Amino acid sequence: MAGLWRGYQKLLALHPWKVQIITAGSLVGVGDVISQQLVERKGLRAHDGKRTMKMIGVGFCFVGPVVGGWYKVLDRLIPGNSKTVALKKMLVDQGGFAPCFLGGFLMIVGFLNGLSAEAMWAKIKRDYKDALITNYYIWPAVQIANFYYIPLYHRLAVVQCVAIVWNSYLSWKANKV
Predict the structure, then answer these.
(1) Best label site of 119, 168, 173, 175, fewest CB within 10 Å?
(2) How much is the average pLDDT of 2-20?
(3) Average per-residue pLDDT in the chain?
C-alpha cells in the first residue's frame, strides 16, 4: 500500500492537474458502482454500465476540473491556512460554491440521461433541496479539516476519497427517476 501511495505522490508531483481529474473521475465512478450495488441493490447482472461510464465522464469533465479549479481560486481569494482561514474558506465554499455545484451536477446528469428541460426542472425542484440539506450534514466539517490540514494539490483527492459515500448518494439522487 505504501508503494502505491508513493507512486501516486510521484505522478501527482509530475502531473497534478491530470492526476487530480483522473482521481475524481475514478472515484465518482466508484460511487456509482456502490450506489447501484449497495443502495439500489441491482446486482451484477442488472448493473447499468452505461450509467457508470456517464458518471465517470461527469467526474472527469465536471467534478475534477470544477472542484480542482475552485480550490485554486479559493486559495487565492482567502490565502493562508490558519483555523480562521479554514473556517472562512468553508463558509465561502459551502455558502456559495456548493449550491451552484450541486445544481450544475444535477443538470448535467439530467441532460446525460436524456431528460427534457421540463423533466429536468421538475427533477431539480424535487431533489435539489434535499441534496443540499444532506450536503450540509456532511461537508462543512470535512471542508474545515480539508482546508486546514491538507495541502492544495491533495484537497481534491482527499475530498473525493471522503466523497465515495457522497458520490453514491448523488449518483442515486441524480439517476433516480
Answers:
(1) 119
(2) 88
(3) 92
